Amino acid sequence: MQNLEDLEKFGQPGRIAFREDETAPVAVLVAPGGSAEVSLYGANVLAYRPTGHSPVLWLGDGHLAAANPGSSTRGGIPVCWPWFGQSGDSSKPMHGFARNLFWSVVGAECDASTTSVTLAAVDSADTMALWPHAFRVELRVAVGPKLSLKLTTFNTGRSPFDITEALHAYFRVGDVADVLVTGFDGQPYHDKAAGWIDSVQSGAIAFANKVDRVYFRHSGTAVITDSKVGRRIAIEKKGSGASVVWNPNARTCATIGDMRPDDWRRFVCVETANAGTEPIRVEPGARHSISAEISAILVDGEGRPVGVSAG
Fold first, then answer.
1. Which of 125, 190, 126, 123 is nearest to 161 (CA)?
2. What is the pLDDT of residues 165-224, one digit of tens each?
C-alpha cells in the first residue's frame, strides 16, 4: 500500500492533497465547483460536497470497520467488481473483491475547473484464488461542476472473462420519507424485496417500504428529489445497462451490523450498474468502461431551482 511519502508526487497545492485515515490514505480533491475525498481502500469515494451544499454522499459510522481484514466500507460510493451481488459461491465476498483491495494512485490532474485522481488495482495471488483472471481495473474520480467517476476494466490475460459491476452510490437525504426518485417511469424491474417478482415502474419511486429493485433495461438519467433538504441530485451514466435502487426499512436496517437502527432514513442508493443476466464480456487485450456523473442543485418548496425566476 502506498504511504503519504509515496503519494507526495501526486499532490498539487490547494487542489490535491493526501491525509491518513484509520484504514488507508485518502485523496482530498478541491476544485472551484466543490470537493471530494477518495480512499485508497476499495477506491471508495467517501465524500462529495458541491460548493454551497451540505454533503451529497452518506457515510455510516461503520465505514471504519473497513480496517478489519476482508470487510468493506459502508457508504460513499463503493466499487462492486468483478461481480455484483453474489458470485454463486457463498464463500466469496458479496459484490466482488475490488472494494476490499488496497488500490494505488497512478495519476492526478487539475485544470481551471476540474481536479482528478486515478486509482488502479491489478490481479494477485489472492484475487486469482477468488477469480482466475488477469486484469487491471482503474477508477478515475474528477470533481468540478459535477462529480464524475469512470471505472475501466482491462483484460490483461489470454482468455475472455465476464463481469458484472456497480458504482454503489449512497446519497445523503434529510428523511427518506420525503424523497422521490424519477427517471424510471415505464421501466421493467425485478423486485427483490417482494421475492424477485417482475414488475413495471409507474411514476416516481417512493420509499414507504423497503425498496430493493434492479432495473435491467435502464440507461437514462435518474433524479433524486429531496424536499426536506431542498435539493435535486441527478445521476447521468454511460456504459451501464442497469440501475439499482435500494433502501432498507427499519426491520432490515436492524439486521445490518455496521448500521445504526435509524440510518435507513438518511440515505437512498441509486447505483450505476451492469448486473443480472447480461454480464459484460471483455476479450483479451480489450477494455470496458462504465461511468457516472453526479450533479446537485438546490430547489425551493415548489421544486424550482433556487435563484431561477419562475417566469
1. 123
2. 999 999 999 999 999 999 999 999 999 999 999 999 999 999 999 999 999 999 999 999
Q: For residue 268, what are the contacts with CB-CB under 8 A and spacing of at least 6?
A: 170, 171, 173, 176, 179, 181, 207, 224, 245, 246, 247
Comparing CA positions, the residue from 174, 183, 253 lying closest to residue 211 is 253
CA distances from 87 to 55, 84, 90, 196, 269 (A): 33, 7, 7, 17, 21
CB contact at 8 A, 55 and 73 = no
User: Cis before residue 25, ω within 30 degrees of 0?
Assistant: no
Cell numbers that stand for 174 in this block: 434529510
Q: What is the pLDDT of residues 264-308, one digit of tens each?
A: 999 999 999 999 777 999 999 999 999 999 999 999 887 788 864
DSSP string, 226-285: ETTTTEEEEEEEES--EEEEEE--HHHHTT-TTS-TTGGGGEEEEEEEE-TT-PEEE-TT
| Euclidean distance between CA atoms 41 and 222, whole angstroms | 28
Give dist(CA 84, CA 72) in Å, integer: 14
Chain centre distance of CA 269 = 9
* CA 291/CA 274 separation, integer angstroms: 11
The strand ranges marked E within 111-169 are 115-122, 135-143, 147-155, 161-163, 165-167
CA distances from 73 to 105, 108, 171, 249, 267 (A): 19, 23, 15, 20, 15
pLDDT in tens, 216-241: 999 999 999 999 999 999 999 999 99
Strand partners, 162: 281
Structure confidence by residue, pLDDT tens digits, 115-147: 999 999 999 999 999 999 999 999 999 999 999
**Fold designation for 4-298:** Beta-galactosidase; Chain A, domain 5 (2.70.98)
Q: What is the mean pLDDT of residues 24-50?
A: 97
